[in-house]
Amino acid sequence: MGARKTLLTSSLLLVATLASAAPATTVHTTTAHRRRAHVRHVAWNPVLKGSHDSQLRQNEEIDRLQLPRIADDQQLLELERTQELIPISENRALKVSSSIKPEKRYARPWVNYFLEDMSAAYFAEFRQPMQVTSAVRTMEQQHSLRRRNRNAAPETGENGSSHLAGITVDLAKRGLTRNQHAWIENYLKNLRDQNLVEVAEERRQACFHVMVSDRYTEWREANQAADKIARE
Question: What's the rounded Cα separation, in Å, for the pair 21 and 149?
């Protein structure tokens, strides 16, 4: 009888011990799961975030300059023939994506000045080239793009794509190191704060969308003149 009582007491103690241990294990597992879930769902909060207001300003710039939204390839080729759009020149500091058709590797002259300056500065810092992934587009092309990508800007309206006027380029961000990404952010933010560009870091297209104002030419010439005086 004494042995049976001792065995019963031991069994009850074992059950109580397991019961008290179970919640701790469950809490530990749940906490670890929540910690892992938190890491996987970090909020995307770019410094150069796009906005509806920015799209409006881009279209206001097109209207101020009285530039056409290029309707089709025929109009595009005419603008290239008259050199209102000029080729984006590749060099060791600047590459153009092979996905861009030859007739679409064009932009307004001041956009080329911007690309020349930024790519040279980037190459001097990292010894690697920048890449352009999109430049001028036609309304026909934008309409086709929008059928595949509902996040693309429309080809008409007050928030239409500024690519249609040849004043906008997309710069690749895929494969950038943290330092390279921060450098590009700071460079573009500085120009944006001087009202020389409108810029948005795009997530789905993995690029920086940059519209360049024609005011960039005057700003560039002033800086070059100041540098020349400083060297003399």
Answer: 53
